[in-house]
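Feature request, filed as a ticket because there's no other form

It would be nice if the structure record came with a short human-readable summary line next to the tokens. Right now we just get the raw output. Example of a typical job, pasted below so the devs can see what we mean:
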Amino acid sequence: MRNRIMLIGAVTIALAATGCTKGSDNAVLAKVNQTKITASDFKRQLEGLDNVQLEQAVVTDAKARKEFLEDLIGIELVTQEAKRQGLDKEGDYKKTLETLKKDYEETKKRLDRRYQDAVRNELFKAVLKKELSEKAGKLVPPTDQEIKDFYEKNRDKMVTMGGKRLNLKDVEPQIKNRLFQEKQRELYLGYIKGLREKAKVSVDEKAVETLASSLSVTATLQMQQPPAQAEKKDEKKAEDTKK
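Raw output as currently delivered:
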């Protein structure tokens, strides 16, 4: 049943692939008693779909699209029957509904924060492009001497996983790239320093220490977590990201 429900969502791709527009989102694909099933309903179901094969089937096969519609009709019929029996009035259902509501609100908060982070990131990139792109374009690449000096200073670290020492020729491109990135960062830090001198910035050192302690505890717990639980946690993070 889970696969069938997930299958329904892929219709969004099918509609998009066949030229579906915003205006056709309200197109009524079917009616179940007084309830309308629209193209938008199909699209909403697609959001959680992660099966490429199912998506492709709906995009390319009319029979698969029809099966999606039949699945959605079946779900609506079952839902209406549950309401007819008064199951939506029972205590267990209401408790579940409250849990779902809380989960939804938490998910919405996370999405709102991610959106705000994305907006801030775009502003960040826009001002750096405006203020620093020209200066960055004039940065001089690291000289051969600078590359050699870095290698000599870090010679003991220039080894493979097996312990074999790497010569300068082996790591020259990586060193050159790193040194150039450091020059770019110095340019950025200089820009930040100028902004900071004009602003009022304060740091609560006590709060930072408290944060450090909590991060340490979290890291310790994760290290002590059994592999199965750690894997499950990673899967949950992936699901939250998709939402």
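Something like this underneath would help us a lot:
The CA atoms of residues 38 and 133 lie 48 Å apart.
Strands lie at 28-32, 35-38.
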